[in-house]
Structure formats: structure tokens, C-alpha cells
Amino acid sequence: MMTLPDSIRVFERGWLSANNVLLVGRQDAALIDSGYATHAEQTLDLVRHALPGRRLERLYTTHLHSDHCGGNALLQAHFGCDTFVPACDEAKVRHWDEDALAFRAMGQQCPRFTVDGVVRSGDVLTLGDLEWQALGAPGHHAHSLIFYCAEHQVLISADALWQNGFGVIFPELEGDDGFAEAAATLDLIATLDVRLVIPGHGAIFDDVEASLTRARRRLDFLSAKPSNNAEYAVKVLLKFLLLERQRIPVAGVAALLASMPLVVETNRRHLHKTDEELAAWAVKQLVRGLAAKVEGDHLVNV
């Protein structure tokens, strides 16, 4: 039976948001990851309902993708909580460097938030009256962190490990290393004594060895030919926008993808399609995968 300590409460979110992990201690409460901007009000409601008469003192972000930190600004405004980000990304957030932050490049929203402190790999934090070790988990994001509680053998894995895979290896899309780092992160997780995994997306799971095996097979496929990872990324980014908007004119998909710098760079490096070819291919892939359908002149979310 999968049971968590009483101080750990998981809000399993549907896409577009990452899961939120609330850690409630005797003296204070902390949240890890706040979900996407369009779901921020729901995130706030979940936290307020779980903390009647109390406030959220601390907010942590595993990595700076919009589905993990899009609710930060609203939570800060309501609770005045101290907010912590991975140390390597501190300057980007403090100066809100939109060229360095990935939100605009991916065509996604993230209201500006402030940073009060940082977390480094190797830091030990007390959250929910439990001791957690922060560990660097590059691959999906170069500066991602995961959090491990040895006492209860619980891992908050963000997008480094899901029950059936992991997040897109984004650094590889722009010519940086990512595949080897993702492999090293999986190897690191394998060294931990983990009973339960709280992933960034999906349900809590306990079949850790089987999940690692599936993740390694997935990584082998993506790294065997970089275009595999690139194609996966384009599909994910278009699906994300479709989830947000629900309906997109088919005739507008080419321009939409061309407006996203990350997609443009991915196509230039790996796919070598015209804007129209890339749009037609992406629409076909989502429809074939039952992730969308075409109704009249529109691509519609399924």
C-alpha cells in the first residue's frame, strides 16, 4: 500500500500544471512547484483549503519551466511566501531575463515573480518537519532539482522520472548536452533507496525499478537519433498550446510554431522542414496519436 507521511500532501494536477507537493510542519508550510499560470487560482484554492487558518511560508521551484512555476506570482501576492529557485537560475529570475528564461521561447505564460533565496545540489532542507536532500537532476532541464527524504524513502522527482518516462530533453534541442546528463540522473536515482516517487506529472508510484528501466529504454530511443527528441518536443509544445487554447485554426499552426524561437531552432538544427511542412506534420502526429482531432478548419484538443 502506498502511504505518505501525514506532513506530505500531493495535489495531482492534470496538464497543463505540474503536481504540487505541500509539506506541512508544526511551525511552517512549504510548497514545491506551483503549476501553470492559467491554473494559478486553482492552485491557490488547493493550498488555502489544505492550510485553514495558516499561511504558506515557503515556495520552492524544482526547475524554471512554466508548468512548475506559473503560480508563483499569485501565491507570493496572497501569502507573501519566501520563494526559492535553483541557484544557477537565480540571476535570470531576479532580472527577469526573457531571453534566458524559456517561457517566451516555448510560447508559454509565466507572470513575473521574485526570488528570496536559492537551493543548491547537496543542500539539506527541513520541509514538513522532515529532512530532504536537494539533488541536481540535469537532463530535461539543465538546472533541475529533485528532493529525497531518506527517512521515508520518498523522492520528489519533478520531470527527471515519471512512471512511464520523463520530460523532453530540452538542452539537446539547442545544441547543449542533455542525453548523457539525463542518463546520469537516472543512475543517481537508482542509487537512492526509494519506496515512493512523487513525479512532476501523473500519480505517485512505487514500481521504481520498472520505471527506471522504461525511462532508460526511452532515453536510448531519443538519443539514438536526435531528431527523435526534436520531433517529440515539437509535438509536446503544440499539444501544450492546444491544451491551453482548446482550439487552434489549422491554417494558423504554421505561423504559431514559427513564432516560438525554440521550435524554430529545433527545426533548423534537427528537422529541416519548411514552416508549412512542420505544421502539417505536427498536426498529423497529434491526430494520429489521438491527442487532437480536426473539426472543420480547427485543430481541437482531445
Protein described:
With 302 residues, this protein is an alpha/beta fold. It has ten helices and 14 strands. The protein has helices spanning 40-50, 66-69, 72-79, 90-94, 179-191, 208-224, 226-245, 253-258, 261-271, 275-288; strands at 8-11, 20-24, 29-32, 58-60, 82-86, 117-119, 124-127, 130-136, 145-149, 154-158, 196-199, 247-249, 292-295, 298-301. Helix 7 (226-245) runs antiparallel to helix 9 (261-271). The chain is globular and about 55 Å long. The model has no long low-confidence stretch (mean pLDDT 97).
Instruction: Quote the distance from N terminus to C terminus.
Output: 33 Å
Mean pLDDT score? 97
The residue fraction in helices comes out at: 25-40%
Largest sheet: 6 strands, mixed
Keywords for this entry:
302 residues; alpha/beta; 6-stranded mixed β-sheet; 5-stranded mixed β-sheet; 10 helices
Topology (elements, then pairings):
Layout: E1 8-11, E2 20-24, E3 29-32, H1 40-50, E4 58-60, H2 66-69, H3 72-79, E5 82-86, H4 90-94, E6 117-119, E7 124-127, E8 130-136, E9 145-149, E10 154-158, H5 179-191, E11 196-199, H6 208-224, H7 226-245, E12 247-249, H8 253-258, H9 261-271, H10 275-288, E13 292-295, E14 298-301
Parallel strand pairs: 3-4, 4-5, 5-6, 10-11
Antiparallel strand pairs: 1-2, 2-3, 7-8, 8-9, 9-10, 12-14, 13-14
Helix pairs in contact: 1-3, 5-6, 6-7, 7-9, 7-10
